[in-house]
Design brief:
363 residues, 12 helices, Jelly Rolls, 30% helix, seven-stranded mixed sheet, single chain, nine-stranded mixed sheet, alpha+beta
Length: 363
Amino acid sequence: MKKSDGAAYFRMFIWFIVGLLCLNVRRLWLLTHHLMMIHFPDPFLVNYLPNGTGFSRQPVPETCDHVVFESVREVHGLHDFKSALKIIEADVERPIMFRKFLKHPVEDWKQLELQYTNETVSFNTGEQFHRGGLWASGAQSTGKMDMKIGEFFNQKQINSSIQYCSFVRFLDPKFVQDVEGHSLNEFINVGFDTNFLSNFNEDLLATPIHAAPLVKSYSLQYVGKKLWVFFRPEEMELFDPINIPSTNVMTGNEVEYMKNRNHLLVVVQEEGDFFYFPPHWGHAVFTKKGPNVMINFRELDPMLSLKINFWRGLEGLLVRWTTSSKIKLFNPLNGLQVLKRLETFPKFGKESPCASRFSQLVA
């Protein structure tokens, strides 16, 4: 091959790379801008949000009657992690619910509660205003308090005051076992646990739309019920998401979301159910009143994250690599300046008209 031919091929390669970069210039700009917002919280960067307005969270539809509730894939009759994981591996990019995976979930939780009865965790305190909406929690956090796990469900909830913990870590995965005595970390590399304990006086959507960009999630419901509303990865991208380090949306509201669709992807997780969902799947979580215990194990899977949504996964990796270990715990109170700024936008608008239907589903 002549040198001139080699030079021509090299020029073609360079132009090909330039072309790819030009096609993705917007995504490169968004990626750079988000990293600047996170790591260089200059007032201009923190106050600037897409479309000039940012969190337009309050509007909700007038009715939910026209909305069709669709469900995720369900599997029945399995009670061991090994068999469940084989099914997950074959359909790893979609959520899957394994019904009645645990045969005695309440009794299993009582054993765990006894084992960790003196473990002190940080509980959120707050006031509940209504049942909430997909973009807006129905409660406002007012602070935090430390409490032993063994004391929590003996606390009396007063009027609209609430106490709950979310995204807390205290479990050793080896103590969470299937009916055959196997733990999940025997088969996968469990990164960490994020657990949720509550005892609300009323049903509450306490966790509005968000996503985990880099991890596969494995959830077990021990006590009570939760209802999950899912947003597909491509739907999350419609509302200017940013990884901080979980994926939060910076624009949108229920009215805008429901404008061009008449369905919601909804699934109720009951006692004993084992639930898997992959990276980038947005979700809002509606919790049934009364004692409620859900544990969630996370498995880091960057390759699956990049496969499902390359740019969102890349942003997630860059944020993870360039932030402290404290911030990596998916705790929204861990000091990112951009999060503090986003928290100032109004979130306590009207209750979603779908909240009544959610309550019926978890009754």
